[in-house]
Backbone:
C-alpha cells in the first residue's frame, strides 16, 4: 500500500506520461480498468494546461492553428509544469520553447510573437497605478529634468525583433487587416504597456528604442537622449518623451530620483 | 449569507454584468483568476457594492501531503481581505506535488492518513484567513483500493475535526456515484446537515470509456435532470443554503445562466427559504 507521499509522487509521474504499475494497482478497476480511469486525469492535465497556454498566447495559436499549437504546448507542458496555481502566470519559458521547437522552424518570427503575447499578458496583470504623469514632471525644476533617471512602469516590456511582429500581430487578430506582410519589412521595436482597461503596445523607431534601452540600463534622460541621437540624428526628444509620458510608460518618481 | 441562488462569474460575461447589473443572488469567482491587478479585478471591486461575493479557490491543494503553499495562501488571503466575500471555499482534492501544479482536482485515498493531512491543511487555511471555509466534494473518476472511509464519512470527520463547513456539489455527487458505482444516498445520509453551507450545480458530459460510460464534470452544459432531482432531495434534507450554478466551458449567454439560477432558487423557495429572493 502506498503512503500518501509516495502515492502523490507516483500520481505526479503518471500525469506527465510515466506508466506506474504501483499506482495502477492501488486503483480499483472494473469494467472500466484502472489504467483508463487514471488516463482521465492525464488527459485533463494536458488538455487544460494547453488551453491555458492558448489563452496566454492567442496570437501564436491564431498563426499556427489549434492542432499545431496543442502539440507544441503539450511538448512544453511535460517539461515545464506550472510552479504555482495562477495560470495567467504560467508560460514564461514558452517563447524559448517555441524558438527551439523543430516543427515551427519555418516560422522564424513565431518565438518573437510569443514574447509579445507574454509581455501583453504581463502588462494586463500589472497594476495601472503608480505611473509618472505630466503633473509630476511640472513640479521638477527644468534644470534637473535631464538628470532624472526614470524606470519603466511595472508590466512594461521592450521587445525588439528582426521581424515586423507588430504587423503580424495585428493581422492575426480576429478583425485584423487581410493584407500580405513581407518578412523583409524589417525589424520592429515595441513597448508593451498596461493601458487603463487593457494592455497594448507602442511601435517605436530605432532611436526611441535606444532611448528606452538606455533608461532601462540606468541612464539619465540626458544619457538616454545621447544614445538616441547617436542612432538617429533627427531624434526628437520632446515629442518622444511627451508620447511616452502620455502613455503612462514610466513608474512614478521615487523620492531618490527626485533628489538627483 | 441568505440562501440565494447565484452564478459563477467568468471573464467573457464580466463587461455585460458590470454594465447591466442583472439580478443574481450572488456572484462566485475563482480566486486564482483574480490574484493579479488586472482590469478584471478592478471591475470586481466595483461589483462588490451590488452583489454578495463568494471566493472559490481551485488551487490551494488541501490534500497535498507537503502542506499548503504559503506564498499562494498569502495571495489568496490578500484577495479575500480586499473583497470581503460572504463565502470562501476550495475542494477535497490535491493539485500540487513536489512544487508542481497540475491544474486538476486529483483524488485522495479516504484513509486516516489522508484525513490527518487534510485536517492539518484546512486548520492552517482557516487560521491564516481567520474565518471558516467550506470544503467541496470533488468529482471522482477512480477510487483507491486502500480507502477505509466513504467520501461522506471522510467529509463528516473533516468538518467535525477542523470546524470547516461543507460545500455540497450535487453534480459531483451524481458524477462520482455513477463513475464509482455508489449510491448518492450515502452522501445524504452521512453528511452532517449543520456543516453544509453552500450548494453547487453544474452540467456534466457523458463520455465513452472502454464501452462503458463515464461522466465528466466539465461544467459545459445545463444542469441535468438527474442532478435537479437529487438537488430537490438534498435541499429537502439539508435545508435552503446559497446555491450556485457553475458553467466554465462553452459559455452560454448570461441569461441562460440566470435562468438556471432561477430554477435553483425555486427549490430553495419551496423549502421555506423566505429570503431566497435577495437581489
Residues:
Amino acid at each position: 500500500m502506498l503512503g500518501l507521499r509516495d502515492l502523490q509522487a507516483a500520481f505526479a509521474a503518471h500525469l506527465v506520461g510515466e506508466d506506474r504499475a504501483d499506482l495502477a494497482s492501488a486503483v480499483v478497476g472494473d469494467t472500466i480498468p484502472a489504467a483508463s480511469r487514471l488516463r482521465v486525469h492525464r488527459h485533463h492535465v494536458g488538455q487544460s494546461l494547453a488551453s491555458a497556454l492558448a489563452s496566454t498566447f492567442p496570437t501564436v495559436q491564431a498563426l499556427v492553428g489549434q492542432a499545431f499549437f496543442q502539440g507544441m504546448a503539450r511538448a512544453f507542458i511535460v517539461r515545464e509544469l506550472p510552479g504555482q496555481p495562477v495560470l495567467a502566470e504560467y508560460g514564461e519559458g514558452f517563447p524559448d520553447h517555441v524558438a527551439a521547437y523543430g516543427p515551427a522552424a519555418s516560422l522564424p518570427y513565431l518565438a518573437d510573437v510569443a514574447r509579445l503575447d507574454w509581455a501583453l499578458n504581463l502588462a494586463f496583470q500589472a497594476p495601472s497605478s503608480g505611473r509618472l504623469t505630466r503633473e509630476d514632471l511640472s513640479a521638477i525644476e527644468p534644470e534637473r529634468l535631464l538628470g532624472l533617471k526614470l524606470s519603466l512602469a511595472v508590466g512594461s516590456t521592450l521587445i525588439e525583433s528582426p521581424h515586423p511582429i507588430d504587423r503580424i500581430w495585428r493581422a492575426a487578430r480576429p478583425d485584423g487587416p487581410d493584407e500580405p506582410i513581407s518578412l523583409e519589412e524589417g525589424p520592429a521595436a515595441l513597448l508593451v504597456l498596461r493601458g487603463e482597461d487593457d494592455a497594448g503596445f507602442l511601435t517605436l523607431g530605432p532611436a526611441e528604442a535606444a532611448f528606452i534601452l538606455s533608461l532601462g540600463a540606468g541612464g539619465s534622460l540626458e544619457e538616454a537622449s545621447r544614445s538616441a541621437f547617436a542612432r538617429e540624428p533627427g531624434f526628437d526628444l520632446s515629442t518622444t518623451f511627451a508620447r511616452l509620458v502620455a502613455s503612462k510608460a514610466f513608474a512614478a518618481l521615487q523620492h531618490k530620483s527626485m533628489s538627483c | 449569507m441568505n440562501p440565494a441562488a447565484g452564478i459563477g462569474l467568468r471573464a467573457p460575461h464580466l463587461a455585460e454584468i458590470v454594465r447591466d447589473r442583472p439580478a443574481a443572488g450572488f456572484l462566485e469567482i475563482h480566486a486564482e483568476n483574480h490574484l493579479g491587478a488586472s482590469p478584471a479585478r478592478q471591475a470586481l471591486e466595483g461589483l462588490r457594492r451590488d452583489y454578495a461575493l463568494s471566493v472559490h479557490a481551485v488551487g490551494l491543494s488541501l490534500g497535498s501531503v507537503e502542506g499548503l503553499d504559503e506564498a499562494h495562501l498569502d495571495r489568496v488571503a490578500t484577495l479575500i481581505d480586499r473583497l470581503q466575500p460572504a463565502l470562501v471555499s476550495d475542494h477535497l482534492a490535491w493539485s500540487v506535488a513536489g512544487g508542481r501544479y497540475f491544474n486538476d482536482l486529483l483524488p485522495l485515498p479516504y484513509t486516516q492518513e489522508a484525513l490527518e493531512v487534510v485536517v492539518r491543511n484546512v486548520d492552517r487555511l482557516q487560521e491564516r484567513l481567520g474565518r471558516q471555509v467550506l470544503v467541496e466534494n470533488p468529482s471522482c473518476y477512480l477510487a483507491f483500493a486502500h480507502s477505509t472511509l466513504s467520501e461522506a464519512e471522510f467529509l463528516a470527520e473533516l468538518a467535525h475535526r477542523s470546524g470547516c463547513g461543507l460545500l455540497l456539489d450535487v453534480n459531483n455527487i451524481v458524477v462520482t456515484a455513477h463513475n464509482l458505482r455508489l449510491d448518492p444516498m450515502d452522501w445524504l445520509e452521512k453528511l452532517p446537515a449543520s456543516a453544509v453551507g453552500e450548494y453547487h450545480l453544474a452540467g456534466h458530459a457523458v463520455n465513452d470509456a472502454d464501452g462503458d460510460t463515464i461522466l465528466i464534470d466539465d461544467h459545459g452544459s445545463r444542469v441535468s435532470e438527474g442532478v435537479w432531482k437529487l438537488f430537490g432531495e438534498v435541499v429537502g434534507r439539508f435545508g435552503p443554503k446559497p446555491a450556485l450554478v457553475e458553467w466554465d466551458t462553452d459559455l452560454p449567454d448570461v441569461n441562460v445562466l440566470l435562468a438556471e439560477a432561477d430554477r435553483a432558487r425555486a427549490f430553495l423557495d419551496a423549502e421555506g427559504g423566505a429570503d431566497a429572493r435577495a437581489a
